Amino acid sequence: MGPDEVQRKLTTIFSTDVQGYSRLMGDDETATVRTRLTRKCSSPSPRY
User: At a CB cut-off of 8 Å and minimum separation 6, what does 24 contact?
Assistant: First the structure.
């Protein structure tokens, strides 16, 4: 898989994620923010 194909796939994933997040925010903003913060705090920190 070439760099252009990888870029297209990442762009598609990102676009889909943004659309899903926007839909969730429209459905229930308070619950979406609460869930996002909970998951962010419970996920391990990346190691560099």
Answer: 32
Buried residues in 33-43 as b, exposed as e (16+ CB within 10 A)? eeeeeeeeeee
Amino acid making up residue 33: V
pLDDT one digit per residue (tens) for the chain, 48 residues: 888 888 888 888 888 888 888 888 899 999 988 988 888 766 566 565
Q: How many CA within 13 A on the CB side of residue 13? A: 6
Global confidence as pTM: 0.52
Q: CA–CA separation, 8 vs 14, rounded Å?
A: 10
